[in-house]
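## Example record

The block below lists the input lines for one assembly entry, exactly as stored, with component labels intact.
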Amino acid sequence: MATPEHHSYDVIIIGAGGAGLRAAIEAKERGLKVALVCKSLLGKAHTVMAEGGVAAAMGNVYEEDNWKVHFRDTMRGGKMLNNWRMAQLHAQESPDRVLELEAWGALFDRTKDGKILQRDFGGHRYARLAHVGDRTGLELIRTLQQKAVSMDIDVFMECKILRLLRDDNGRIAGAVGYWRPTGEFITFAAKAVILASGGVGKSWKYTSNSWEGTGDGHAMALWAGAELIDMECIQFHPTGMVWPLSVRGILVTEGVRGDGGVLRNSEGKRFMFDYVADMFRAETAESEEEADKWYDDHTAGRRPPELLPRDEVARSINSEVKAGRGSPHGGVFLDIATRRSAEFIRRRLPSMYHQFMELAGVDITTTPMEVGPTCHYIMGGVRVDADTAATGIPGLFAAGEVAGGMHGSNRLGGNSLSDLIVFGRRAGMGAADFIEGASGEPTFSQAEVDAVIAEALEPFSRESGENPYDIQHDLQEMMQANVGIIRTGSELDEALEQLEVLKERAGRVAVKGGRVYNPAWNLSTDLPAMLTVSTCVALGATSRKESRGGHTRDDFPKADPEFGKVNMVLSQPGATGVLGPVKVDPQPIPVMPDELKALFEEAK
Amino acid sequence: MADVTMRLWRGDQDGGELVDYTIEAQEGEVVLDVIHRLQATQIPDLACRWNCKAGKCGSCSAEINGMPRLMCMTRMDQLPEGPITVTPMRTFPIIRDLVTDVSFNFEQAKRVPAFNPGTVPADGFRMQQADVERGQEFRKCIECFMCQNVCHVIRDHEENKPKYAGPRFFIRYAELEMHPMDTNDRRELVREKMGLGLCNITKCCTEVCPEHIKITDNAIIPLKERVVDAHYDPVAWLGRKISGRKKRTADEAAAHRP
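Predicted structure tokens for the full assembly:
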């Protein structure tokens, strides 16, 4: 086999969304030779889809806000399963990270006195989301992209990484992948690798995720011997489009509700008042009248129930539809038309106006939207050290959606963009510190590279076999049906059985044509990660016999305090490779220090 | 529902042809949905670029019945009866099928002298909404590169590419020029090296912009006026001298690439 194109870097970063870009900037500022590798063109990563804003307790709108309140909101939103230290760092550092974006050229919306404007979102006590209309993710990625380009960071676009490589001592040594435009293979030698590869949503039928969300980073970390935690905790965003069918799952920003939109059932009732959990009762309005006062003045009334955390709202919508009070296409109605002026809606929510007008032929200034839950985000992910983003593998770091712990069992809206910039930076610092403290150049085995390449090329060698699109389709149907928003033991068992069948089929994939930009082949190389990650989700879900945040069990409908004390830790003993068995092991979550515990006592 | 015929360009750098594919139509679909169904059922190796499928990432640009459009935002039921022709963007080299090599744009991006605010206050800038809105219009750009594709200066004139940044980057230069806190002066650079003068404001770029950015009226024309002022107007030059406005020169700005 010919030796593929080879590059040598201090650090390679896999994924060029918010976390990857921020990590690259940090590592470059530390004087390292940095490569940023991404599956798509630069600037197209899923970060671009984030709409509502970036959460940071800057106190520009409500002076009372501070990191402690943000920390508390985040932990409560995550049903206390969060890694407390990550939540603390996140709350403390996000205001500086937002200001830094502004210093790099981001243009956020302004308050009357010229500061960054902040908007209300679910689960946040105060208006806290710095934003640009409803296209904040685009602003964030473009700002970081332009900064990275101005620093001459090397970017490998449309380059898919297949596997991480380690040296004989288990230290990270590089990675192997291929260029999508040519199909040629490429290897990287690196002293450190940062995973910033995003999420896993593409394994579900209805998802807000793009084709890239195949869990590559989660799977590659596991295969290399790292641990994943709480993979069962998946966020189904309450408001995805439901009609037309072809756009089902596309996101409708929570900003619609933050700006006054309400959820109604087929009887026109604001049903969220019927679904306020005890944990949130004290701070949630009891009547429409009280709720409506809150939008203009947060001291005049308590929060509307439409702005409960996302897991609560998604489950409530699911219940209404099940009870037969849904909209014609199986969702509920999201109404802002009767509550705000057309001019206000077009100014505050331009992308939503545009999206519904062009894709559904619906004018949201006059007509309610039909919405329902869509697979949006994974809270679980690679187990990392909070301060350094280091995984258990020397030299391997993870930040952003691929990392677990920060959001516990449910993420608050707006906490994702802030997560990216806080922990992207920390991963860059962590990698730089690691490299400074390490000696020698790790080397990987060419035989391992050859084996990965041979495996990737197998689909071309089969005259006939499975169509990769069929396997993807069947996986999505199966995960939607058995590992969806509401789960039960028997269905999860079914899922684990079906996954074994799908893995066996994935071993028989056949692909025709050449290697140049061949999407069927590209998909066949994504399938191993999708199947591995789906297995981890199903295993975690089987093991967590309770309902908590984004993980709801019909057969265990209540949160169980004992399960609230553990992470579901997934690992692959012996790192047996792509389709090897995965083991699950509950381990205690890090214990919060007393001074932070006191924040929750005070609030009671 | 009835069948629909998709007439797709298939080929690579060495040439290609339009090929007809027939598939059952489905309610509410956009062009990209049909492309995806064709990939899954008939043409597994059909190359096409896409990501968000919601008009936010600008990946799936193509020419649909001859018009540059995002495939994800073009509804099938709004296209005229008969075969639907989908071809790759013409201004960029072909990689395969509907995918083109858009690296020209990423090279142009590298030539833009970065935002430089000088000293930044610890608690952030004070800027009025009205002042940031001018730049915000241009920052809506999703980099679909359809304005670049349709711009006649480079669409059929490969020789102009090295000396022409194109509409996407003119709005970027305009955005930086209009940023209340920026201290770089890129006007000479835009005139001398980015080919602003080659644009003769036919507004093709504005017409195809999926974000409805008024590229010509709000970016290119004001930029042309500023460039002309800087270059030819001795009064403006003297004014700047007296007011002591610290905009850096084109060469200084161009050199400001860390």
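Chain B has a mean pLDDT of 92. Residues 21 and 128 of chain B are 54 Å apart (CA to CA).
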